[in-house]
Design a protein that fits this description.
The protein has 395 residues and is of the alpha/beta class. The protein folds into 2 domains: 2-193 and 373-394, Rossmann fold, CATH 3.40.50; 198-368, Glycogen Phosphorylase B (Rossmann fold), CATH 3.40.50.2000. It has helices at residues 7-16, 43-51, 95-110, 128-131, 157-167, 176-182, 198-201, 212-215, 234-243, 280-284, 307-313, 324-331, 342-353, 357-368, 373-394; strands spanning 2-5, 28-32, 56-60, 64-67, 72-79, 82-90, 118-122, 138-143, 170-173, 189-191, 221-225, 248-252, 269-273, 289-292, 318-320, 336-338.
Length: 395
């Protein structure tokens, strides 16, 4: 459901959930994210949908510059107790003025309410540009990526992150390599690598009816899903496709921040576009090998690809470039083939295509049994509760 709310409506929503809160046990979680809820279903959605069982969650996105009139907010109800809040700024608003407008919208939304009832949850330090003046009861920084290394990263991002480290009560990182890089910047920091919704992806092992746009693609199929951006090794895919014209490469996901004309135009490379999270198991059910063809650059230095355990849970063998958080533990455990060149990828794929998958799956399943997004959520919640109790005692 979508609502275009005026100031009175915004107040009514918050007033309805603001009774009987306490500093020790806040019940409203306001998340500031650089990712849009409806873009690609990943870490924020997995975690915050679970936190919405215990908190009313507001997922505050970056602004959209599409308003014909005054700035406004839309509230999108995505689950019980989970609202996506989208600022709509007037068309043509200069980016440098957008923070002023976002600050005014946020202040109007929260005016008159006790911020001791709030947890602020940050995915982007850039949100401090319009929220740093506010004093919630508790601040979480879930550092899922090294955003300063991404293409088109704002120059002030590093300074904002330093400020966020000073403000945060607790910090989580999206992987172990990122934890090693950040662990000396905060006294209360914990690694939480990418996890898995096993029951969702295990459906791929039973699905027989494939999606229509994949049905007629010949086998063997080597597949990838995710954002196709500056991290994706286009040249690697092109070289493999040329060397192995009888293999077919199925690529799912939006193309962003790169020139689409650079994508390979080959008969055995199939760009099928973005797919919903719910549809991914159906596509995986028809793949012979899954790929993680990421470049080794600053943008991928600390990533922990969520797709690694998802591919394995679907029962599809995996080849990856030597991304550190894939090498350890998945490569070291023999669960993922690690390859650095197109020929190494081809050699690994040929081995996997001839592998007895029935002997591999129990090994992968045993490893995956130790992780889930629900377990990650529960451990995060426990860390937050411990820190809240410690803060209450100290105060």
């Amino acid at each position: 459901m979508e609502f275009l709310l005026n100031h009175t409506d915004e107040k009514q929503i918050l007033n309805n959930i603001h009774n009987h809160q306490s500093v020790k046990n806040p019940k409203i979680l306001l998340c500031f994210s650089h990712l849009r809820w409806d873009f690609v279903y990943q870490r924020p959605q997995h975690l915050l949908s679970r936190f919405s069982k215990d908190y009313t969650v507001f997922f505050f996105e970056e602004p959209v510059f599409d308003s014909p009139g005054d700035p406004s907010l839309t509230f999108l109800l995505r689950a019980d107790n989970l609202w996506v809040v989208v600022p709509h700024l007037p068309t043509g608003t200069p980016w440098e003025k957008s923070n002023q407008v976002s600050k005014r919208l946020l202040d109007n939304l929260l005016a008159g309410h006790d911020l001791n009832t709030y947890i602020f949850w940050y995915y982007t330090p850039m949100a401090l540009s319009f929220s740093s003046h506010l004093k919630p009861s508790f601040i979480v920084y879930d550092c899922m990526d090294e955003l300063s290394n991404f293409k088109f990263a704002p120059p002030e991002l590093r300074a904002n992150e330093a400020e966020l480290f000073n403000k945060a009560d607790i910090v989580f990182t999206g992987g172990h390599s990122l934890y090693e890089a950040k662990k000396n910047k905060h006294k209360n920091i914990f690694p939480f690598p990418s996890s898995i919704d096993k029951s969702h992806f295990e459906q791929a092992r039973q699905i027989e009816a494939e999606p229509e746009d994949q049905q007629n693609i010949p086998h063997p199929r080597l597949g990838f899903y995710g954002v196709i951006d500056e991290r994706f090794d286009i040249d690697l895919i092109s070289k493999m496709a040329v060397k192995k014209p009888e293999w077919h490469f199925v690529l799912l996901g939006p193309v962003v921040k790169i020139d689409q004309s650079t994508l390979p135009d080959l008969p055995n490379v199939h760009f099928l576009g973005s797919k919903s999270y719910n549809d991914l198991p159906a596509y995986l059910s028809g793949w012979d090998v899954a790929l993680i063809p990421f470049l080794l650059n600053e943008a991928t230095r600390y990533i922990s690809p969520t797709k690694t355990p998802e591919y394995l849970s679907a029962g599809v063998p995996v080849i990856s470039t030597p991304i550190q958080d894939v090498v350890s533990p998945y490569g070291e455990e023999g669960l993922v083939k690690i390859a650095g060149t197109d020929q190494e990828f081809i050699d690994a794929a040929e081995e996997l295509l001839n592998m007895d998958i029935a002997t591999f799956l129990p090994v992968a399943d045993a490893f995956l049994s130790k992780q889930s997004w629900t377990l990650t959520f529960e451990k995060m919640k426990e860390r937050i509760s411990q820190t809240l109790n410690t803060n209450t005692i100290l105060n």
